[in-house]
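input
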Amino acid sequence: MIRINLLPHREARRKQNKNAFFRMLILAAIFGAAVVFAVWAFINSKINDQDARNAYITAENKKLDKQIEEIASLKQDIDALKARQQAVEDLQGDRNQPVYLLDELVKQVPEGIFLRSFKQEGQKVSMIGVAQSNERVSELLRNLTSNSPWLEKPELIEIKASTVAQGKDTKKVFDFTMNVGIRRPKDKDSKDKAAAGNPAATTADKAKAADQPAMQAAKPADKVVASTPPTTDDKAAAKGASNAVASGAAASAPKKP
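output
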């Protein structure tokens, strides 16, 4: 017997396929949402980790900034202490400079030169005196340049001709102004060590330095300026000051080691 299906089977199959499509669509949406959530969770965890690292680095940087400020303040304190120590050492070393200065002036000032006054400002000494001739001034410059362990770099500022009254006669003399540097004990010791290490160079430097004062003293001699002659009282006062300097230096000069 032949059976004929008169039901709408095509519509049923179409409905079945449609339901299957919607089920697959829902499953794909759920799977896509799960994938998106997993990616978001992974990226969010990485961001949180990086934020934690950044916070740690920021905290450590703040600690380092505080340590750097402390180190800078310590360096300033150390520099201030070094400056104070250097000032104390300079004062300790310079307290004997007047004795050395007087001792060297007695030794290096040649005959025929009378010092009227001298003044020390820091490491520079200004001298005013009277000389019998330009050659005496040149000799003084050579002595201060080559023979003095404490005095250095003499500089002739001015020299001018004048006259001194001796009774009824007048005598021509030369008034001069000179600057010279005085060494500190540590500078003297370092120069002595350098000279001991290279005696040939030291000899050449002394020979070269000995020629310069003569040329320096000869230049002002070409332009001699006439001045008011000092009186007999001025000359006596200059001689008395020179003798007082010599006697005071001889009494207070320490023995050289």
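quick obs: The first strand starts at residue 113 and ends at 121.
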